[in-house]
Amino acid sequence: MNKLIVILTLSMSLVLAGCQSTNGNTKDVDPALTKGNAGNFFSKSAWQSCAVGAGITGVGCLLLKGNAATCIASAAVGCGVMMGANHYLEAKRSEYIDKEQRLDAYIYDIQQNTLEIQAVTEAAKGVLNKNLATLNALNRQIQNESISRNQAKNELNKIDANIAYLNEKLGRMKKVESDWVSLSSKEKIAGLNVAKLNKQINQLHKQISSLEKQINIVSKQRSVVQVS
Question: Over the stretch 57-79, which tens digit does the pLDDT of each residue have?
Fold first, then answer.
C-alpha cells in the first residue's frame, strides 16, 4: 500500500505541476498556431495526459507486484524532461542502469522535443510572415488614413496575440533546453560520455533560436506600427 501511495503522489504532483502552465487566452491567436502538432508543445493537456498515463502505468505495475523503482521509472516514460529535470533524471537512472541504454533513451526523448519545436517553428514561420506583411500594409494605411482606427486595432490585437502566444511557447522551450543542459552536466560528472547528447542539445538550441529570430523580427516591426 505504501508503494501505491508513492506512485499516486508522484502522479498527482505531475498533474499539479502541469496545471501551473497554461496557454492563456488563445481567442485571437491564429488557428495555425494552436492546432495539430504545433499547438501541442508541452501544453497543459499534454502535461495532464502524461501524468495520468504515468499514474495508471505505475499503479498497474504495483498491482502486478512489480519492483517499486522499476514501476516509478515506467510511470515516467513519455513524460520527458517536462516532468521536472530531477525527477526525469532519477527515473531514467532507475530504468536504465546500463549507461549506453540510458544515453539512447535520452537521445530519443530529446529528438522528440526537437521535432515538437520544429512543428511550432514551421507553423510560426507562415503565420509570422503573414503578420509581417500585414504590419507593413497597416503602416502605409495608417499613414494615408485609408483604414479606420478600429480596423487597425483589431488587426494589431491579432498580431499581438500571436506574438504573446509564441513568446510563451519560447519560454517553455528555453526551460526544456536548460533542463537538458543541466542533465547532461550531471551525467557527465557521473561518468557518462555525453558527446552525442550534447550534439542533440545543440540541434534543439538551433531550432529554438530560429523561432526566436522570427518572433523578434515581427516584434520589432510591430513596435513601429502605432494607432493614435
Answer: 444 444 444 454 444 444 444 45
